[in-house]
Amino acid sequence: MKSQDVVLLLKLVSLQEQESHFQANQREKNWPHDWGDWNDWEEENIPELDDYRNQEQIEARYTSRALAQETGISKSQVHLSIKRCYEVGLAKQDRRMNVPRVNRKALDEFISYGLKYVFPVKPGTLTRGIATAFAAPVFSKKLMSAGELPLIWPDPRGKTKGLAIEPLYKSVTFTVRRDPEIYALLALVDAIRVGQPREANLAKKMLKEKLGIQ
């Protein structure tokens, strides 16, 4: 496993959730208008739910090229990442459509119990960036702040000043600016990686809810 594999798996989860929203005619995401912790220096080319009108358009969102464009992971690395995920059972091909689907239970187990040992992280220097872990919008009103400095992914667009932590993959700040759902998922992952037991357990519970695991 490589760190970009986890990012890609979470993106696949987000794409499938977008399919569900479209099928249920839920055009609006359940997010506030200010979910992004950054300044928009340039317009992002973010696909709309109308891109899910038929099976062909759905499958087009899962090509190596499309996934590379949405995650910042190179096309060749996307291909290799999906292959690795198939081999270890974290993903499999949809029987009805020619797209990869995530084994959500296995992914949850790996993130909750193994990720912090495989990809450890510690807070670093004070800088400006995009809020992650317990400072991210997904934790809004979930935790009371004890005055600690927020954790951030370093990024010149970011609005938050805090302690830098290395993202799972170098393109994470690009990835989250295009998709509120993967922003939430990656922030939960960071909370599990760096949190004390009480906070990490809350993040694990919220991750299960996001993945639809009972």
Task: List the quaternary state of the chains.
Answer: single chain
Global structural class = mainly alpha
Tally of extended strands? Answer: 5
Give the fraction of residues assigned to helices. 40-55%
Mean pLDDT: 86
Poorly predicted ranges: none
Which percent band covers the strand fraction? 5-15%
What radius of gyration results from the CA coordinates?
17 Å
Q: Shape, please?
A: globular
The total tally of domains equals 1
Number of alpha- plus pi-helical segments: 9
Query: How would you spell out the order of helices and strands?
Result: HHHHEEHHEEEHHH
Distance separating the two termini = 26 Å
- How would you sum up the major sheet? 3 strands, mixed
Key features?
214 residues; mainly alpha; 3-stranded mixed β-sheet; 9 helices; 5 strands; 46% helix; globular
Structure report:
The protein has 214 residues and is mainly α. Helices cover 46% and strands 10% of the residues. It is built from nine helices and five strands, in the order ααααββααβββααα. α1 packs across α8. The chain starts with a helix and ends with a helix. The mean pLDDT is 86.
